[in-house]
């Protein structure tokens, strides 16, 4: 970090330069979106932003991981970056007096790490930043390669801002537009309102090995992999018909004959009456990222497979030990059922491909519970635990706690409660209530309940720990004469903590 206090620009100069770009409050554009996605991937962060600092707000031309277009200036990290010469890196926001009390830091799952490179006008006035954020601290900051990549992409953002302004003045600046487009790392193309391709930048011809004019009109599709052509045409026709942005991944033939995975995006440019006057698009080579993702997926699946084997080995060891110590048979059976419950939770949330997808259903709370209660059926396989109410998105951070809670509930009901009687059943109602998510377990048709037990067993303690210790909720038991009622009152974010962490940001 370097001091920029001696810079000659004033706040008035800065705001004048920012507004001269004509970029504030414009629609999203693929070229800027590509940059933030690449920045997040290279820096391995959940959030990346092209951020412009106005007088009383920070506005995002492009963002990944936030889901909003602007936020108040009071909570902005980037406004502090304007005081630096080139960049600002905050390894741990909680340890930095400027940010320790920031609500974006103090909130659950709040930001801890920030790195931003300044976006500067031609005369050096800072307009905003290209920045990345993470919810975990990084004492070592970014690697030299990551920092250099962020600087290059920040320069590219400014090139795109200049390019965008040049396109708005097409009649006066066609030559400048060509120069700027040719300097971009992406392949840039443009079409008439009817979709006729009449412009490709130099990068397109360099990548594909074609000559100017040879891919105009519809000839561009000949460079697509035969298996991807019809799909690409369908998506492009839909965009032309509706005016919606075009986005697709396909394999594009390189000049050496190899097909590379490419991300194609385009946005319609409209006149004052809302009529489309041009389409501008980009093609970004994402083949290397695809290979990295495949490698990570294979490693993740291999780790998941080994964890699954560990569950099986542990369960077998418990069974073997029980055979050597018959007096521990009851304890062994109880422990094995709990291990199996955890294994089912892991099977539900483990990484998988379409081929290896688990058979327990979609990633929702109801799908998970239905799979867990499948062994508890009545005559002709009718379910005896009946689910109703609101469903919820569900992730692996909540799976273990929920699995242990309802495994204990169902096991106790089968031993002592409603499921111990042939005609007994259980209803489980789930509902959203403002910022809470409520689950109510109610037993019917079981043995009469004479009151609460005189002591809490291990299963009861485990259930309470799962709800109150792991999920941050409250667990209440009502020992009614007609049957046990258990109410779990959870924060609405407890079942999907990763999504909640990003939304909080």
TrEMBL record:
Domain PAC, first and last residues per copy: 246-298
Cross-referenced Pfam families: GAF, HWE_HK, PAS_3
Reaction catalyzed: ATP + protein L-histidine = ADP + protein N-phospho-L-histidine
PROSITE patterns reported in the protein's UniProt record: PAC, PAS
Record keywords: ATP-binding, Chromophore, Flavoprotein, FMN, Kinase, Nucleotide-binding, Phosphoprotein, Photoreceptor protein, Receptor, Sensory transduction, Transferase
EC number: 2.7.13.3
Domain PAS: 173-243
CDD domains, sorted: PAS
Acyltransferase listed as a keyword: no
Membrane-spanning ranges: none
SUPFAM superfamilies per record: GAF domain-like, PYP-like sensor domain (PAS domain)
Enzyme class: transferase
Molecular function per GO: ATP binding; photoreceptor activity; protein histidine kinase activity
PANTHER family to which the protein is assigned, alphabetical: GAF DOMAIN-CONTAINING PROTEIN, SLR1143 PROTEIN
Protein name: histidine kinase
Organism: Brevundimonas bullata
């Amino acid at each position: 970090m370097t001091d920029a206090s001696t810079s000659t620009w004033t706040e008035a100069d800065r705001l004048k330069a920012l507004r001269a770009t004509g970029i504030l409050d414009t629609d999203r554009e693929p070229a800027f979106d590509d940059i933030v996605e690449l920045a997040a991937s290279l820096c391995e962060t959940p959030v990346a932003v092209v951020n412009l600092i106005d007088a009383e707000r920070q506005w995002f031309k492009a963002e990944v991981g936030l889901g909003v277009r602007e936020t108040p200036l009071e909570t902005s990290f980037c406004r502090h970056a304007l005081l630096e010469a080139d960049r600002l890196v905050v390894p741990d926001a909680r340890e930095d007096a400027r940010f320790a009390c920031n609500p974006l830091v103090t909130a659950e799952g709040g930001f801890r790490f920030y790195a931003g490179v300044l976006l500067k006008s031609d005369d050096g006035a800072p307009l905003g930043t290209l920045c990345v954020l993470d919810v975990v601290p990084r004492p070592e900051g970014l690697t030299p390669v990551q920092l250099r990549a962020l600087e290059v992409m920040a320069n590219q953002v400014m090139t795109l801002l200049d390019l965008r302004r040049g396109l708005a003045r097409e009649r006066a600046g066609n030559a400048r537009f060509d120069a700027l487009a040719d300097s971009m790392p992406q392949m840039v193309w443009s079409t008439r309102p009817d979709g006729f391709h009449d412009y490709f930048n130099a990068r397109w011809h360099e990548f594909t090995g074609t000559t100017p004019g040879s891919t105009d009109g519809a000839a561009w599709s000949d460079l697509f992999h035969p298996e991807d052509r019809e799909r690409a045409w369908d998506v492009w026709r839909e965009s032309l018909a509706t005016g919606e942005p075009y986005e697709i991944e396909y394999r594009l033939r390189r000049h050496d004959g190899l097909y590379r995975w490419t991300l194609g995006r385009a946005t319609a440019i409209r006149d004052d009456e809302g009529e489309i006057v041009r389409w501008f698009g980009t093609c970004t080579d994402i083949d290397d990222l695809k290979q990295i993702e495949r490698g990570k997926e294979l490693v993740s699946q291999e780790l998941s497979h080994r964890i699954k084997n560990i569950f099986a080995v542990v369960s077998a060891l418990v069974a073997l030990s029980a055979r050597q110590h018959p007096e521990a048979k009851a304890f062994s059976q109880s422990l094995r059922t709990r291990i199996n419950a955890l294994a089912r939770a892991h099977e539900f949330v483990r990484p998988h491909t379409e081929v290896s997808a688990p058979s327990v259903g979609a990633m929702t709370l109801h799908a998970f519970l239905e799979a867990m209660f499948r062994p508890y059926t009545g005559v002709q396989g009718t379910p005896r635990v009946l689910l109703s109410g609101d469903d919820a998105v569900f992730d692996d951070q909540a799976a273990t706690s929920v699995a242990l809670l309802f495994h204990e509930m169902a096991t106790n009901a089968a031993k002592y409660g409603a499921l111990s009687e042939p005609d007994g059943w259980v209803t489980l109602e789930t509902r959203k209530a403002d910022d809470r998510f409520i689950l109510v377990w109610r037993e019917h048709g079981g043995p009469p309940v004479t009151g609460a037990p005189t002591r809490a067993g291990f299963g009861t303690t485990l259930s309470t720990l799962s709800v109150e210790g792991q999920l941050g909720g409250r667990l209440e038991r009502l020992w009614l004469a007609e049957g046990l009622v258990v109410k779990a009152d959870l924060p609405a974010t407890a079942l999907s903590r990763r999504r909640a962490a990003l939304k909080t940001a």
